[in-house]
Structures are given as structure tokens and as C-alpha cells.
Amino acid sequence: MKNRKILGILVSAFISLIAMLGIYFHYKLVPYNANRVKIGATYMTMNNDFYKVLNNEIDKIVEEKNDILYTRDPALNVDKQAQQIESFIQKKVDVIIINPVDANSQRLIKALKKAKKAGIKIVVVDSQLSDNSSADTTIVSDNYQAGVLCAKDMMQTQSNAKILLLEHRSAVSAVDRINGFLDTIKGHDAYQVVDRKDCLGQTELSMPQVESVINSAESFNTVMALNDQVAIGALAAIENMGMTNAVKIYGVDGSPDMKTLLATTSPIQATVAQSPITIGEKAIQAGYQLDKGKKVAKEIIIPVKLITSETVSDSDITGWQ
User: Where are its TM segments located (predicted)?
Assistant: First the structure.
């Protein structure tokens, strides 16, 4: 009886050992992540709430599906972003979502072509690449129209303008906005561009740039800023220089901060709202469709909307759209 009991214990222990070894080798040979979709996302800078909101929408859906999202911030360094693409290739991601630091960077374009060759799907968001042959789809706001809307409002509310342009020349989205603005005022001599400054889309760069123009004695009464962050930097500069009654400022984004200022501060004339929430949703939807081998439109354009001090009360000023 005693021997049979010992035998039973040994058999049970052996079965348990086999089961444990089976589990161990299953996860050793078939990793836990094997069937999960892996997505790499890199944005020109996370020092911009627009990209944080966009990425949060992606993260929300990825988490719901129990998949994996790697989010990277190159901090406006195109070489660093190219390295991040290389890292995504090494991680064998299925989809890359990218907002390019520099649309014309050959190193970045080469890295994306390498990713494409490795079978990775490429989703470009918010700003195009100059060479989009590696992109499966590009999802952007109607940036040209954003510039048009700003120019039209200016021409309706001001009989003339001396304009300071605040740009980001390496970002196609920003270039499109400025081009939309310039094309609209073309042929109207009452509206003249007196200076142009590149601010890389950053508040901390636009403020000193605007102050330098003021100190140069260049006269302007209107600022067309490529985005709301730059517009807010311009506002800080004109407030510092005591020019709040002399200048009107336009931005693009429809950020909560800009909408609040629009409702409370006279120099802020208008912003054109784009939707990082919609772009994020469409980006991750496209990524999953592409991963499943489904077709996605080569270009997806998201409509934009002008918000002025008269219409801002119709918007949620506490959040993004």
C-alpha cells in the first residue's frame, strides 16, 4: 500500500513536471507577442499637444485589441527619427505610423523604403513626405484650405494688412498652409508680406523671432502663424512689446489654449481647427486594414473649420476636436 502511494505521488509529480516544461517551451519557442500586431509610431515632436492627442487615440485602440504600440519622439531631429525607423525594423513591427520631421530628408526616405521592403506597412500622418512612394497611405488635414480660410477672414475684417509669416519650411503641412494663404491674397496689393521667419512650429522659437522683427523696426499689423503654438508665442511677444492693440494673429490647429485665448484676448483673430482625434482614429484603422491585406486610399484628407471670436462659443474650448 505504502509503495503504491509513493508511486502515485511520483506519477503526479512527473505529470506536473511535463506540464510545466510544456508551458515553458511553448512560450520559449512561441513568444507571447507572436500573434499581436506591433505598431511603431514616431512624431516630429511630442512637445506639441496635437501629437499627444493623436497618439492617445491610436494607443486607446491598440490597447483595446491587446496589441503593442511603440511610441517614439525624435524631438525635431531627423537623424534620430531615421534611427527610430531602423529600430522598428529590428523589432519587426507590422505597421509604422510616422509624422516626418523633414519631408525632404533622404536618410529618412531611405529608412522608410527599407521598412517597406521588409514588409512593414507605412502610414504617414499630418504632414506628407516629398517622396511618398514608400507610404501606403497619407492622412492629413486640408492644410492648403486652412491657409485660404485665414486669408479670407483677414480680407473680410481688415481693409489692408502688413503681414508677418511664421513658418516651418521642412514640414509640407505647414508649407501648404502658408501657400494657401499667399495664393489667396495674391493680386491684392493692400495685403503685403513684410517678413518671414521659420519657427519650426515651436512657441519658444516664435516668441524671440517676433520680438526680433519688432526690434528691427519692421512694421506689421497681422501675423499668419503655421500653427497655434507659434501663434501663442507671437502673442507673448507682442504683449511684451506693448503692441496688443496693433496686431491681429491667425493660427491653425484649434487647440484648447488657442480657443480660450480667442474667447478672451483681442489680438487672436482666428484659428483653423483640425482634428488630431480624427487623424489618430483613421491612422490606426488604416494600419489594421493594411496589415490584413486590405486596400486603403493613398491619400485621406480631413476637412478643417475656421473658428473666430464670434463662433468660438459653439466649440468645446476645454478640449480638442
Answer: 7-27
